[in-house]
From TrEMBL:
This is Etoposide-induced protein 2.4 (EI24). Its main location: membrane. The keyword Membrane applies. It is found in: Membrane. The chain crosses the membrane at residues 25-48, 83-109, 146-171, 205-238. It is a multi-pass membrane protein. InterPro entries: CysZ/EI24 (IPR059112). Keywords: Membrane, Transmembrane, Transmembrane helix. It comes from Advenella incenata.
């Protein structure tokens, strides 16, 4: 069996950066930022109290948390929730607003990105996808739901020293990779090609997501990551489709419903 052809993640980042410098893509950065900002304001107004209380009640069941809280009370803090759980609540709500911005980018910016990248850099990659719009919307809802639920469930783990960094990188990598990897190829790849690319190039998409998540931790860099991650994943995905077709690694399969169930 032939090995899948190599596709460079570094080349995808280089091409993504060049595409990001285009005026249309620079302007596109504003849209997910505005939506994320509006979502953040709404969440901070209506969800702060319930989430802070839940996190505080959860933490108080941990012995080490109570011990540290007692020590902090001697330094002028009545309870640890006066600062730590409040900070974590703030971070959690910002993360949820961030996924809203990323989802908006996937829905509204991705079509523009596909047109710019597909027509400009990969005109020889024929569009053979089916049900692209429905598939993209379903993927956006799925990834957003998993991210929000997973983030909230693992939120108490942030109280463990240094766990917050690892969790931020993991969930950021998941969001940046899974929100865009399917959308990047859904218009161009056949159902069989989608299955092949998502299976054999999963590590590449995860690596892109991890790098974007790490960059997003830099102050203000996170503002451009929703759109930039889309551009990088689109380049990577279309390069993969092009390489797979060049080596004829995927044969058409008529039983599409059966293949659809195998999609990651």
């Amino acid at each position: 069996m032939k090995q899948p052809p190599y596709v460079s993640v570094a080349a995808a980042f280089s091409k993504g950066l060049a595409t990001q410098m285009r005026p249309s893509m620079l302007f596109a950065v504003v849209l997910p930022f505005v939506i994320a900002l509006i979502t953040a304001v709404i969440l901070l107004v209506f969800a702060w109290g319930p989430l802070d209380n839940w996190l505080d009640n959860t933490a108080m069941h941990w012995g080490w948390f109570q011990s540290v809280s007692t020590r902090l009370s001697g330094w002028g803090f009545v309870t640890m929730s006066d600062w730590l759980t409040g900070v974590l609540t703030f971070v959690a709500l910002l993360a949820v607003s961030g996924i809203a911005g990323l989802a908006a980018a996937a829905i509204l910016v991705m079509p523009l990105a596909l047109k710019v990248i597909g027509d400009g850099s990969y005109p020889d990659v024929q569009k053979k996808g089916e049900n692209a719009t429905v598939t993209s919307l379903a993927n956006t809802v799925k990834v957003s739901t998993i991210f929000v639920v997973g983030w909230l469930i693992t939120l108490p783990l942030w109280l463990i020293p240094f766990a917050g960094i690892a969790l931020s990188l993991f969930w950021g990598a998941y969001a940046f990779s899974h929100m865009t990897r399917l959308d990047a190829i859904v218009e161009h790849a056949t159902l069989e090609e989608r299955v092949y690319v998502l299976r054999h190039y999963s590590r590449g998409f995860w690596l892109i997501g991890l790098i974007c998540a790490a960059i997003a931790l830099i102050p203000f860099a996170g503002f451009v990551m929703p759109v930039f991650s889309i551009l990088v994943c689109t380049h990577y995905g279309l390069m993969a489709v092009k390489a797979v077709r060049a080596q004829q690694l995927v044969a058409p399969v008529e039983n599409s419903p059966a293949q659809a169930k195998r999609l990651p």
